[in-house]
Amino acid sequence: MGTKVWTSDDVIKKVSEYMNKEHVDQVKRAYQFAKIAHNDQRRQSGEPYITHPIQVAGILADLHMDPETVSAGFLHDVVEDTGVELSDVKELFGNDVALIVDGVTKLSKIKYKSSEERLAENHRKLLLAMCKDIRVMIVKLADRLHNMRTLKSLRPDKQRRIAKETLEIYAPIADRLGIGTIKWELEDISLRYLNPQQYYRIVHLMNSRRDQRVDYIQNAIDEVKRAISDLDIKSEIYGRPKHIYSVYRKMVEKHKQFSQIYDLLAIRVIVQSIKDCYAVLGAIHSEWKPMPGRFKDYIAMPKANMYQSLHTTVIGPEGKPLEVQIRTEEMHRVAEFGIAAHWAYKEGIRSKVKTSQDNNKLNWFKQIIELQEDTDDAADFMDSVKGELFGDHVYVFTPKGDVFELPKGAGPLDMAYMIHTEVGNHTTGARVNGKIVPLDHQVKNGDIVDIITSTSSAGPSRDWIPLVHTRRARNKIKQYFRLEDRAKNIENGKNIITRKLREAGFDAHDVMAPENLEKAAVNMHYQHAEDLLAAIGFGDLQPTGVVNRLTQDLRDRQKRQRQDQAEKEVLEGHQTISETSSETAKKKKRQKASNGIIIEGVDNLLVRLSHCCTPVPGDSIVGYITKGRGVSVHRVDCPNIAKAEQNGERLIEVSWANDPGDRTNYDAALSVQGYNRAGLLTNILTTVNNVTKTVSSVNGQVDNNKMATISLLVGVRNLEQLDRLVNNLKIIPDVYLVERKFR
């Protein structure tokens, strides 16, 4: 595919080579619309934003994708980054383009607890959209590929974060979809940013003797041509470049030196038919001695991503190991473009994925849906996807020769539940390669696994749960016992909730009234109260959340009562404005309690500034009365204020005295994050010293990615001085984030 820089004219010219005029016009309209929508926008590199959609559309055109996909390439960012609505895209370009654009659009308008949660939700949305239409992921991969090519314009911490995400999520997806041409480039660029030292070392080693290797490969090609000359086979033979990341993985995983990587030297033979593939293999093995254990027949047993080829490593010319790949033209097209080849536009027709053959090969889509149904937590879902679908796999056979793909570490029970739930439930044992094995036996590549079942089996055992490796098998076993023990689980659930309510001081009989239980069940997405109780009894649902839901109304009433009582105590214990003349009231309102704080209408209360949020003059503040410790003053956004409200504490109005003669220094906690270069801490402390001379504490730590987090406790007179300090810290080179901390 290369790293060609596309212009809009290049893209139109490319699609004109294989689309009819009507479809070319559709692509042109998409470009014009995107150009207007992104007008005046710029990327972080400074170039016009429209260059990015053009490159994405170019990558898709290079894959010969259909008009909807190339159009979506131009339009993929208009909903997320401009004022364009999805309904506009649907109206102008149709349902398919709108579905693809929606699938690649991030969930930017939803608030999440953390950036990790947001990222997991975006990945989940993308994977589920891909299951509806594979073109969503093909566009996303093109989008990610161009973003990786232009990663140098971002900060080092962002480069590493995006490269890590690419290596963990997007490169494995490209591999799963068989799009080798994108997979290899994503992996190589990711390695460049995650481990530049190793990346450039391998590049240097590969380049150091390139001329010798080129001569060797040419010599090997000439000898292969000579070896197959008698076969009368039409073929194309060329040297295959080795990808940097694959060399790196072999060095790491197999603990090998660069000189021990055999398949740096490789040639590829493209022929017309499967019969020709095996004929060429025979001729090569007659010419050179094959290395034991280095032959793989992916034609007879294709990979899960539809990849087919013959791989053999022989002792080639000069006694050096030489890898040879042999495949047909169609196999080569699938190896380069994978599932994208099935969506390629041919003679004005979009040839969609064939339902029978390819659905079996891409049954991991079904696994994604099952994983989604098994968990509501996006991070948990993504962990399962990465572990079970994108991790290392083994391929095993049934006695009839059917192939099953299992995550590395899986055993016979995992395979049984993958075949069918009833096969899993009635399993009594297993044979691997003809020998009886325990159910926790880990299967290996090429094993023949025979699942032994019995109709008289009592069903699964609870002891199986720790034995299985896949979430699917674990959930099927749990589901069996969930149904089997429903009545017992409902009773257990009732007992657990009753006990928790009594421990919290509530009358369980009143709280667990049928109408209250039904209301809580509906609110927590269960059909009936019994379903809710069964989930608690089985252990699928934590009782604390249910108790909180059941007692919400009661706690709200108690909170109002406590607030009324607290207000009464404050008014009885302290002279109020209403009990004095208006002149006295004005005087008291101006009266300073302590720490530069005024309590509205109340005098002689002990006042302390909280250590959790370190408010300074200028911050919006609020106070609440604490038993025996007066009034605690917090910033209004302090998490402890929200907790105080939940606990029924009485909040009262407070304000800063704004005394112009006040020279007090107030503590403020800051967190500074940046790349751990030499002199970073010195620059930070110098900047702090230029604004305030008071520094109470400095702490720092550095993570594995050389990211430093420095915590400071400084003294400032007001918010204005603090803002000045924060702004000065932000302009220090390699500082990426400065924020106030809650302690």
Coarse morphology: globular
Q: How much is the average pLDDT? A: 79
Amino- and carboxy-terminal Cα gap? 51 Å
Q: Any idea what the radius of gyration is?
A: 33 Å
Please give the number of β-strands: 23
Instruction: Kindly estimate the percentage of residues that lie in beta strands according to DSSP.
Output: 15-25%
Q: Which runs of at least 5 residues are low in confidence (pLDDT < 50)?
A: 107-114, 347-362, 573-593
Number of H- or I-type helical stretches: 32
What percent of the residues sit in helical stretches (DSSP H or I)? Answer: 40-55%
**Protein structure class:** alpha+beta
Main β sheet profile: 6 strands, mixed
How would you characterize this protein structure?
- The protein has 743 residues and is of the alpha+beta class.
- 50% of the residues lie in helices and 15% in strands.
- Strands 1, 2, 3, 4, 5 and 6 form a six-stranded mixed sheet that branches. Strands 15-17-16-18 form a four-stranded mixed sheet, covered by helices on one side. A four-stranded antiparallel sheet has the order 21-22-20-23, with helices on one face.
- Strand 21 (695-702) and strand 22 (707-716) form a beta hairpin.
- Residues 107-114, 347-362 and 573-593 have low confidence and may be disordered.
